[in-house]
């Protein structure tokens, strides 16, 4: 008899972390939206159908090791962990600790992300750890940290948006990526910046449609207008910021007519956008992946922060700037040490005081901690090369689909001596692995997630996992002890790991030390920083000052530059990539949910009818989209609102349909974010044989 | 490490110096600026004139170079590779860049050249204070129109005097020119067309038809002349401007010229976009790359609040017999578009009062991209997308995007007994995501109810 019960938990997908009530009934698991503040009784199709993940037919049920015949064969856990530990030890002995890499994910719970970072630094002694969040909001994180001294996606609760008069959404499409958020935007007039007429843009009072890769020019122009037209909040700029003059000296070269020529956004529309924002009593500027996933993503986000600062929005009650984080634990995942350059508590690994504190919690000498390692793309790019990792452990990620330049990255993955993937479904990356470790998923485990507003949430276990699945924490414990680590350093109970995380984060920028499972289970809404057991948490940051020593926010002196690739004779169009409502990230989970797959079964390319016509393409036919790196195949979808110079591809699909087969390896110099949002391509009919 | 000397400290010189550093030149760069101000953005002088920016507000970022202000070059010793200055300085160069700019042309009219309340708009000093009282702007080219508009916007009493039949007659055809004159009028700028000034008297300006305009101040916008004196004395090849090749070299391979003083392919461009492209090409060249300037596409976009106007290409292109010309004239609403297409590309265009088309047609021209097949969409700058109302939607149209619920699924739920939005939500999950489709679902319910009632009445 299965356990009949109900738990309050959260949706397994995006950073909104909608509240749900999961019930185990005789017919199976059912989900109901709860009245949790962010979703307020709403759920999108992904959330409603999430229980289907729990009994997906090809669920990984046994550890598997690739045998001499090249096939993955089921083995017991001891065998699998022995193979992994033996392999890691051998590679480390021969090539040094940095020959082992770790690749984490923004969907891992805080506990897993924390323990993964600790495992890498202590058990493996490697500096080579990074995660797929680098492909998500790293540009906004870098820009936010520089501007405010602290990066929390939304420095205010989502519900604050409901009273906004105007919200500027830059490169964000929440109507598809996090639909319940739109409830909070119903009152506001939306200004949407997107090269495409997305579902969000359709709801906009004003839609600015710049050419892909030109949004920095656009926002420099908006700042220019704010200054010349006298909309800046000069008292605020004087009292609460520094660096305006240097930022303005760059923006002054972006007068609206020049911006129009570079971006394609009409001067009058630029002026209207600024006027709407400036005249609103309560206004917000929000950025998404569209602004961030560029080789100048940090500067672009800084441009939007500059605009918000000039208008006096951040740190003001009822107004602000925020980043719409994407992945389920995209916020928490970037705070606890799975990032190449960071230690728990959002501390920098190069900061001696940070190293000393964390080493103290871990009971090791500070000098034993490795330094910063390669960023996500650079790590993947180095796999199997001289000086690069020869073994990789992947947790909660599917880089064979989600990394840019995917053909090359797949080749790198297959050049490894040892690829180990922990997942609960046979993702495209898991299928390449030498060892596959079946792990638990959301409704089978306890833990915490931190949503896009910096609020720490409890993920609760509804049901026992399949017989042979283990939690990631157990996997790390098993591997660490085999590598000679004392077992007590790697607790397997999430609550114990969280209590250690609290100590490790104490005094850091993301201070969780006052947050406990008890407080969360008692229904407290706790946003970090929460530095003590009596502290109420911090739903709104910066109201009294920004997190720099002088309390002032920083303008950034940024200037526009072209994307790494501009259209050429061979590749005359620009391709941009993104998301659809019914799929999530690499699609490893959502492609296994029948209703979602029925709604979005295959890759497609959105293209203007004229552009399609010139390329000999017709609606519903197959197109080959090629860049300098490779090609992908997608179904043609004619969309009259597309710019004629731009095509769009969703990135959720596998194999030859991977949009990332065409994306490039240009990285932002600071965030190391790849340029997902613009590639030069050509398009032609795909001839099927 | 080669030693660079730049004569001039305007936007072209500034951009060149910045790009040299960007491309990795670490040797010494000396910049000689005749004005006492640090480099500033000349394009924004109008905003200083109309008071929306201060002089400091248009300062360009500091340069990583030895910038000498208030120093004029007086001569070039090409044999010794030296530049001499009016302060007695001697600057040795390996590469010399002339970015001397241009000087305003002032018509030879009695009373104008000797200065009494007459100003040109070239330097910051020209914009020191807002002109007072009634202002006459001489010259209805692009700069004159922009200045007149900016001053009128600040409440000045402005009259624009122009010898042509309409303002900007070098860029516009008659229809657009007439609309521009009318628009200026509604914005508070009087015009005197086909008129010239013949005499400046205190507080007055006498025109060639005898009219005497009251004018406390005269702003002269009668074009510019390239500053070529230095080059000429040094024996460099000078036509209208200092003649340069695609690499921006003058007739002396170690001396280069960029910006308003340079003549490339028989043209002195005078546009900031050209100056920047030339500066970039030269910086690439001098740092070992293959920078090449091939001329800039001529796009004249008026910078005047409340006037959406662009002229692309030459007037000849617009009149060409080979071109497919698309025209829309809507004088009552002050709109006019004329686009000449050659091989599906924009060869020339004049657009007035179509803000979105100005943006998109300019991009199509710059990118040499084929234009949309829907010529009306081209003129409007939109891909006219019409959204059907929900009751007209086809059955397979998705009404609730969040939960992928089609109109058909809603209809089925209705016929299955779900008669309210709440019932339908229960049955289909429509409206349970963002809630944005609640109105559509309500409307579809209403239409189904009406239809069911009609059918029942029909049956009864």
TrEMBL record, chain A:
* Listed CDD domains: MopB_CT_Fdh-Nap-like (cd00508)
Q: Which GO cellular component term is one of those annotated?
A: membrane
GO terms of molecular function = 4 iron, 4 sulfur cluster binding; metal ion binding; molybdopterin cofactor binding; NADH dehydrogenase activity
Q: Which UniProt keywords apply?
A: 4Fe-4S, Iron, Iron-sulfur, Metal-binding, Oxidoreductase
Q: What does the record list as GO biological process?
A: respiratory electron transport chain
Going by the record, the broad EC class of this enzyme is: oxidoreductase
What is this protein called in UniProt? Assimilatory nitrate reductase catalytic subunit
- Tell me the organism: Saccharopolyspora erythraea (strain ATCC 11635 / DSM 40517 / JCM 4748 / NBRC 13426 / NCIMB 8594 / NRRL 2338)
UniProtKB/TrEMBL annotation, chain B:
Annotated FAD/NAD(P)-binding domain residues: 3-276
Query: InterPro entries per the record?
Result: BFD-like_2Fe2S-bd_dom, BFD-like_2Fe2S-bd_dom_sf, FAD-bd_OxRdtase, FAD/NAD-bd_sf, FAD/NAD-binding_dom, FAD/NAD-linked_Rdtase_dimer_sf, Rubredoxin_C
The UniProt entry, under Pfam families, shows:
Fer2_BFD (PF04324), Pyr_redox_2 (PF07992), Rubredoxin_C (PF18267)
- The superkingdom listed in its UniProt entry is Bacteria
Arranged from A to Z, the UniProt key words for this protein are:
FAD, Flavoprotein
Name the cofactor(s) required for activity, per the record: FAD
Tell me the Gene3D superfamilies matching this sequence. Answer: 3.30.390.30, BFD-like [2Fe-2S]-binding domain, FAD/NAD(P)-binding domain
Q: Residue limits of the NADH-rubredoxin oxidoreductase C-terminal domain? A: 299-353
The segment(s) forming the BFD-like [2Fe-2S]-binding domain are: 398-444
Q: What is the name of this protein?
A: FAD-dependent oxidoreductase
Report the source organism: Saccharopolyspora erythraea
């Amino acid at each position: 008899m299965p356990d009949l019960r109900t738990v309050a938990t959260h949706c397994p997908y995006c950073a909104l972390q909608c509240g749900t009530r999961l019930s185990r009934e005789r017919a199976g698991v059912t989900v109901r939206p709860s009245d949790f503040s962010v979703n307020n009784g709403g759920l999108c199709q992904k959330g409603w159908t999430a229980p289907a993940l729990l009994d997906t037919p090809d669920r990984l049920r046994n550890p598997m090791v690739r045998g001499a015949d090249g096939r993955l064969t089921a083995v017991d856990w001891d065998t699998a962990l022995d193979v992994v530990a033996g392999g890691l030890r051998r590679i480390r002995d021969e090539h040094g600790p940095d020959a082992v890499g770790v690749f984490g994910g923004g969907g891992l719970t805080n506990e897993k992300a924390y323990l993964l970072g600790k495992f890498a630094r202590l058990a493996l002694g490697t500096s080579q750890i990074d995660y797929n969040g680098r492909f998500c909001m790293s540009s906004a994180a870098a820009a936010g940290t520089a501007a405010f001294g602290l990066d929390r996606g939304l420095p205010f609760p989502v519900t604050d948006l409901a009273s906004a008069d105007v919200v500027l959404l830059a490169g964000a499409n929440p109507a598809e990526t996090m639909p319940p958020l739109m409830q909070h935007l119903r009152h506001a007039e939306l200004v949407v910046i997107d090269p495409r007429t997305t579902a969000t843009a359709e709801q906009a009072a004003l839609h600015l449609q710049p050419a892909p890769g030109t949004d920095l020019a656009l926002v420099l122009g908006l700042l220019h207008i704010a200054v010349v037209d006298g909309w800046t909040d000069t008292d605020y700029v004087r009292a609460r910021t520094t660096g305006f003059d240097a930022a303005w000296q760059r923006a002054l070269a972006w007068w609206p007519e020049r911006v129009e020529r570079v971006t394609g956004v009409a001067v009058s529309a630029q002026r209207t956008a600024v006027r709407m924002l400036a005249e609103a009593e309560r206004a917000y500027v929000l950025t998404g992946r569209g602004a961030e996933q560029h080789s100048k993503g940090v500067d672009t986000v800084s441009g939007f922060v500059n605009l918000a600062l000039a208008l006096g929005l951040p740190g003001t009650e009822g107004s602000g700037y925020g980043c719409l984080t994407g992945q389920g634990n995209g916020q928490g995942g970037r705070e606890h040490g799975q990032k190449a350059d960071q230690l728990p508590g959002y501390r920098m690994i190069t900061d001696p005081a940070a190293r000393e504190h964390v080493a103290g919690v871990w009971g090791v000498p500070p000098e034993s901690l490795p330094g910063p390692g390669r960023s996500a793309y650079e790590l993947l790019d180095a796999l199997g090369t001289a000086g690069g990792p020869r073994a990789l452990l992947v947790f909660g990620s599917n880089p064979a689909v989600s990394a840019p330049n995917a053909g090359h990255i797949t080749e790198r993955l297959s050049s490894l001596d040892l690829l180990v993937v922990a997942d609960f479904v046979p993702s495209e990356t898991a299928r390449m692995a030498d060892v596959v470790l079946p792990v638990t998923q959301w409704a089978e485990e306890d833990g915490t997630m931190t949503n896009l507003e910096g609020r720490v949430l409890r993920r609760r276990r509804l049901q026992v996992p399949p017989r042979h699945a283990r939690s990631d924490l157990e996997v790390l414990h098993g591997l660490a002890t085999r590598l000679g680590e004392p077992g007590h350093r790697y607790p397997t109970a999430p609550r114990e790991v969280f209590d250690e995380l609290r100590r490790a984060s104490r005094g850091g920028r993301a201070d969780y030390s006052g947050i406990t499972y008890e407080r969360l289970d008692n229904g407290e809404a706790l946003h970090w920083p929460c530095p003590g057991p009596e502290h109420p948490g911090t739903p709104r940051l910066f109201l009294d000052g920004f997190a720099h020593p002088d309390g002032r926010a920083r303008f950034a002196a940024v200037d526009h530059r072209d994307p790494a690739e501009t259209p050429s004779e061979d590749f005359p169009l620009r391709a941009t990539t993104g998301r659809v409502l019914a799929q999530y990230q690499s699609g490893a989970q959502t492609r296994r949910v029948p209703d979602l797959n029925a709604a979005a079964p295959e890759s497609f390319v959105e293209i203007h009818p004229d552009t399609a016509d010139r390329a000999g393409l017709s609606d519903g036919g197959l197109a080959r989209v090629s860049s300098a790196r490779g090609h992908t195949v997608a179904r043609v979808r004619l969309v009259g609102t597309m710019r004629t110079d731009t095509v769009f591809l969703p990135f959720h699909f596998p194999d030859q349909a991977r949009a990332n087969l065409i994306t490039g390896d240009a990285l932002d110099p600071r965030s190391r974010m790849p340029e997902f949002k613009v590639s030069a391509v050509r398009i032609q009919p795909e001839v099927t044989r | 490490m080669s030693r660079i000397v730049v004569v001039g400290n305007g936007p072209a010189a500034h951009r060149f110096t910045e790009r040299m550093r960007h491309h990795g030149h670490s040797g010494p760069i000396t910049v000689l600026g005749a004005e006492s101000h640090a480099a500033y953005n000349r394009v924004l002088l109008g905003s200083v004139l109309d008071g929306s920016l201060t002089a400091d507000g248009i300062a360009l970022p500091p340069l990583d170079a030895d910038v000498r202000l208030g120093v004029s070059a007086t001569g070039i010793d090409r044999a010794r590779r030296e530049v001499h200055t009016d302060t007695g300085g001697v600057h040795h160069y390996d590469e010399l860049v002339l970015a001397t700019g241009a000087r305003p042309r002032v018509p030879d009219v009695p009373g104008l050249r000797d200065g009494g309340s007459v100003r040109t708009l070239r330097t910051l000093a020209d914009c020191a204070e807002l002109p007072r009282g009634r202002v006459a702007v001489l010259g209805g080219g692009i700069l004159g129109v922009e200045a007149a508009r900016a001053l009128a916007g600040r409440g000045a009493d402005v009259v624009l005097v122009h010898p042509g039949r309409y303002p900007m007659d070098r860029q516009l055809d008659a229809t657009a020119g007439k609309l521009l004159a009318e628009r200026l009028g509604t914005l508070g700028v009087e015009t005197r067309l086909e008129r010239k000034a013949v005499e400046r008297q205190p507080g007055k300006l006498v025109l060639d038809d005898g009219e005497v305009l009251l004018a406390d101040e005269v702003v002269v916008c009668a074009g510019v002349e390239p500053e070529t004196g230095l080059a000429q004395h040094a024996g460099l090849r000078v036509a209208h401007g200092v003649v340069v090749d695609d690499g921006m070299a003058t007739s002396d391979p170690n001396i280069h010229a960029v910006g308003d003083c340079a003549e490339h392919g028989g043209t002195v461009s005078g546009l900031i976009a050209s100056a920047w492209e030339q500066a970039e090409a030269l910086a690439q060249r001098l740092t070992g790359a293959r920078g090449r300037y091939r001329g800039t596409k001529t796009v004249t976009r008026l910078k005047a609040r409340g006037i959406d106007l662009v002229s692309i290409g030459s007037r000849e292109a617009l009149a060409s017999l080979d071109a497919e010309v698309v025209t829309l004239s809507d004088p009552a609403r002050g709109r006019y578009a004329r686009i000449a297409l050659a091989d599906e590309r924009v060869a020339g265009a004049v657009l007035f009062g179509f803000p979105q088309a100005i943006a998109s047609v300019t991009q199509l021209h710059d990118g040499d991209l084929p234009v949309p097949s829907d010529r009306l969409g081209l003129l409007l700058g939109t891909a006219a997308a019409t959204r059907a109302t929900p009751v007209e939607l086809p059955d397979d149209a998705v009404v609730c995007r969040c939960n992928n619920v089609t109109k058909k699924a809603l209809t089925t739920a209705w016929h299955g007994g779900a008669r309210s939005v709440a019932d339908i939500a229960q049955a289909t999950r429509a409206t349970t995501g963002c809630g944005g489709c609640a109105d559509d679902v309500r409307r579809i319910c209403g239409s189904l109810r009406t239809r069911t009632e009609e059918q029942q009445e029909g049956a009864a």
